Description:
Layout: H1 4-18, H2 30-45, E1 68-73, E2 76-81, E3 87-93, E4 102-108, H3 109-121, E5 133-141, E6 143-146, E7 155-158, E8 162-169, E9 177-183, E10 188-190, H4 208-212, H5 218-228, H6 236-249, H7 255-265, E11 271-278, E12 284-290, E13 306-309, E14 316-324, E15 327-339
Antiparallel strand pairs: 1-2, 2-3, 3-4, 5-8, 5-15, 6-7, 8-9, 9-10, 11-12, 12-13, 13-14, 14-15
Helix pairs in contact: 1-2, 3-7, 5-7, 6-7
Amino acid sequence: MFPRSSFSSAVSDIQSLLGDADPATAGLDDATRAWLLDTRQAISAQPRGPGRRRAGAPVPRRARGPRWRVLAVAGALVVAAGLAGGLLAAPLAGRGPASGGHAKLRLTAAQFLNHAAAAAARQPALHVRDGQYMYIASMERWASTFATPGGGDGRTVVQPLHKREIWLPVSNICKPGLLRYSSPGPARKISVTGISCPNRGDWGYPTYRFLQSLPTDPRTLLTMIYAATEGRGQGPGREAFATIGDMLREAIAPPAVSAALYRAAALIPGVRVIPHATDILGQSGIGVQFTRSKSPAPGVPPYRPTWIFNPSTLQWVGETDGTVHGKVMGSVVLKRAIVDRLGQRP
């Protein structure tokens, strides 16, 4: 008997290579694709018993070590590597593509992010006017830790899952934005102080015009991010990954720049693919994680931010940042749009 969870896991492994959209299959030849399709159908045809794990199961804060699954599929042996040092590896033995023998398919974080970049680059171009606003709606849940007067361990409170809506100017951060922190609920104006005006923003407050001005060469872009975040946080890789994640989460960029951000992230050491990731809404996806984070305090596990991608479209849909009190922290983007007025929904 094989673990019941292995069937759905194997289907997801192959789906992460195939996808329903061409970006995920751009690097596969026709014979390999056909063979993988046959394999997926063979797995799906196997009987499945009860006891399947719910999609909403929390993601552990600590990333697990290498996890191997061995499945017998239509007379072939399929060995799928789960998390293995930056590689999503599927050594496939048996009736392989074309001439038979053995085929070994590897999807590194760089390869996956390049596929995601290709999907982003194909998005339609936006025609943005300076007086407009970026609108981002998301679901999110985070935790806050309150320090104690004596310097002991603080009290950590997990926020309830809630909807957040924000409107940000596309060209000048001197103009106020609008935040509805818990929707439905009251909205309040937000602004950036202590800056010269007009101001198209920066890495911490990116407007559409700021992002539009960035180079699309990924190495040049990453060099700029390293320079802008030098000396901060837990090192250049962690800060660069976080900076790119901030722009992916709560900004809108031209398609070519979004693609360049993914390709820049692919150059950061310590980034790996998580083949089976779950967002805060319990939706399954493919994760990209920075693994070289340090513990922020003794006894506190390191934060390993994970970006979640839709496995069919390869669109960035959210991020997670570990668990607190058994609940997954992070956010999921529900809607992005350019609108004409503060408070306007698309």
